[in-house]
Amino acid sequence: MSEVMRNFPNEFLWGGAIAANQVEGAWNIDGKGISTADIATYKKNLSKGDYAKHNAVDEQQIKDAMASVSTDEYPKRRGIDFYHRYKDDVALMGQLGIKALRFSIAWTRIYPHGDETQPNEAGLAYYDRLIDALIEQNITPVVTLSHYEMPMHLVNKYGGWSSRQVVGFFERLCVTLFERYKEKVKYWITFNEIDSIVRHPFSSGGIIPHRFENVEQAVYDGLHHQFIASAIAVKHCKEIIPDAQIGCMLTSLLTYPHTCNPDDVFAAHWNNQFNYFFTDVQVRGAYPKYIQRYFNDKGIEIKLEEGDEALLYNNTVDFISFSYYNSFVTSADSEGLETVSGNTMGGIKNPYLPVSEWGWQIDPLGLRIALNNLYSRYQKPLFIVENGLGAYDKVEDDGSIIDDYRIQYLRAHIEQMHEAILDGVELMGYTLWGIIDLISYSSSEMEKRYGLIYVDQDNDGNGTLERKVKKSFSWYKNVIEDNGL
């Protein structure tokens, strides 16, 4: 086999990924406003899969959070203090040798309430410094415009993304960022896991369910507004930064049938097709026919304004980025079958797959299947921007962290990525989640660790915040140096 076939493409973007609301901390300094992530609480002693309770919000919680300045109950407010420690953290990433860092920009640092007409210069200056630090380390910035947070002011005053007015506020944010960073950032992603609004409307869309008479309609209103906002972002990006690439992002929820019973096969088919709905709109530029039937059956009406269809059709994305952690199994009749959960979703246990300490099914071959399915459907470049293993890590007496289980997980998935490339899939890069330990999105806990860099902090915020490299750090460094060889 030739060297080209054995290695990954020469321009392959090996990297890591983080999100502002899970690492930065500094939640109320330098003019930053309060975001939806800032009211997410850590609740002890919930079962590993009980994400609904982790992410539930009620009026009392919102009232208490808006009045509180504490970080004890709201872990995302403290993060891992990346806001103040970014230089050292980026230097460590430079030692690791990553080619790209996917990160998000906190809306509330740029427009604290979301509806201001002028941006907060202190927030922009922070991202100036971060981006410059990355470039100094030869790390390519990959910026996500919206990653599970928005100003609480837009939630309380407008109803979050259920309001069409929010599209204009987001457009202002995008134009501000494109103009500011047009010379330095050439890779952009519009919405992180845009499909997630149907599973967790608040964290993904600022939609508080009990405030709406018909929450399902509100969710799909919000989704439509995000589709429109994404298309507007694509349009502005291409006008302001002609040499940039801008993509969408999907949660890959690959689903297998429980049996070969045609009813089970169709149930899995529908789950997979529904997962593709979100990319169909952003890649093909129109709502697919199958989702129109779904809306009719549900009594959901998408309010298309004049020009919406043309906007979606004429401003499709350049690439498809996605997260992949695990696969799922479904049945037309799941009564009595053992179930598992993972990545805020649930399904039937797959007896052929091991599970992580958090109950997520580990399926490297599923990544190859997902890559082939997406590429066959769209023939667009793909970018894996999240993949990793959440696990407990132990610091040994000598200070080392021997995370062979993480190396095994990453190796198996990278091997299947290479197989997909040999299959003919055009794969741009791989930014594993998360390059450094961070606050969990789903449960706001710290001890579910993904990083190759350990952060000394526990679930209650105790610790020195000292950084230590894990065994997986050296392993991934070698992978990058050998370009996957």
From TrEMBL:
Write the Enzyme Commission number(s) for this entry. Answer: 3.2.1.86
Q: Name one GO cellular component term.
A: cytosol
- Report the GO molecular function annotations: 6-phospho-beta-glucosidase activity
So where's the catalytic machinery, residue-wise? 386 (nucleophile)
Task: Check the record and name the SUPFAM superfamilies matching this protein.
Answer: (Trans)glycosidases
Q: Is Hydrolase set as a keyword in this record?
A: yes
GO BP terms: namely: carbohydrate catabolic process
* Taxonomy, superkingdom: Bacteria
UniProt keyword Hydrolase, yes or no: yes
Q: Which UniProt keywords apply?
A: Glycosidase, Hydrolase
Q: Which InterPro entries does the UniProt record give?
A: GH, GH_1_N_CS, Glyco_hydro_1, Glyco_hydro_1_AS
PANTHER family in the record: 6-PHOSPHO-BETA-GLUCOSIDASE ASCB-RELATED, GLYCOSYL HYDROLASE
Give the record's family classification.
Belongs to the glycosyl hydrolase 1 family.
Q: What protein does this entry describe?
A: Aryl-phospho-beta-D-glucosidase BglH
Q: What is the phylogenetic placement of the source species in the record?
A: Bacteria, Pseudomonadati, Pseudomonadota, Gammaproteobacteria, Vibrionales
